[in-house]
Amino acid sequence: MKITDIKTAEIGGHGYSLFVKIFTDEGIEGLGECIHGGDGVAMLVADMGEMIKGRNPLDVDRLFESIRHRYIFNGALAGNVVTAMTGIEIALWDLAGKAMGQPVYRLLGGKFRDRIRLYCDCHAGRDDSPESYAERAKEVVSMGFNAIKFDIDNARSPHKLDEFNWSVTPGELAEMVDKVSAVREAVGPEVDVAIDMHGRYDTHSAIRVAQAVEEFNLMWLEEPVPPENVDAMLEVKRSSRTPICAGENLYLRWGFRDLIEKQAVDVIMPDLPKCCGLSEGRKIANMAEVYYIPLAPHNVCGPLGTIASCHTCVSVPNFLVLEWHWVDRPHWQELVEADPPLIQDGYITVPDRPGLGVDFNEDAARRYARTDRPFF
Ligand code: MG
Question: What residues in the chain have per-residue pLDDT under 50?
Fold first, then answer.
């Protein structure tokens, strides 16, 4: 089998995802989704596509490594080059699974579980009050989720010093604690609650927040400091009983090496359709497993990218929970033909059909596509 063509489409959801479709001389196609690479990713995929035309699509890891090697001097360490590689890699896995008549997880080594537990990213309340956060938390838990996440970094807080300074002020800290307290009280002790700070705060501020929310028994506090300085992350981790999670802005195994080896976090959250792809994501999870660190991938993709992440999540022992960020986007249901719906009581049962195992609805996707870009 040989790759004959690679085409793309950009479809709206959490921003725009880039969908990658790979064609072969045997008529089998593979479809992948990648996200957060920006406008240049489609051009990168086109260039990488020229490179792998004529090659055997079943050599997934080899093709991924060939592209990475070729792009080493053009930014292949991190960022949108890796994101473009990721979209291709996921499409290759879908194609390989279809060609071999096996679900992707089977090609990744088989599954440790049948269902993937999701946490619902609620972002915030309808307004900025703790009551609104609590109400939102109750709504989502009533949908069946047993794990949820909220943001507490508020750039518009009247207590902030200015747009660029991210030292936490006493008023801001009190606001944060009130929100977390309201959410915990609303959902009770048995629902897992994660809180995101989006990598914005300085180290001392992060430590103050981590200590101030200790009593609420969080699943984790996410990116309390920016992602580049692993020593600062470690200092925050050691400062309190609040578990720390990071990784959505790191790329490939090498990007995760320091974070894992220094045990600077309690949980890692690579974004598989952005930072690494399915095979590399599995390798990152395996590295973390050596240090007894669980995997909780970041994920803002639509149903295709989410299912792709699920295939890696079932294939590693140390999976904890996967993000789902589409609670306010009803077109989730339109983009795949799934009956019953993919998500049942906060879990996804990973499909047993060949490839990624979902029927992507291109007619529906076209309604949400960027009109100024190709649609496959
Ligand atoms: Mg985050």
Answer: none
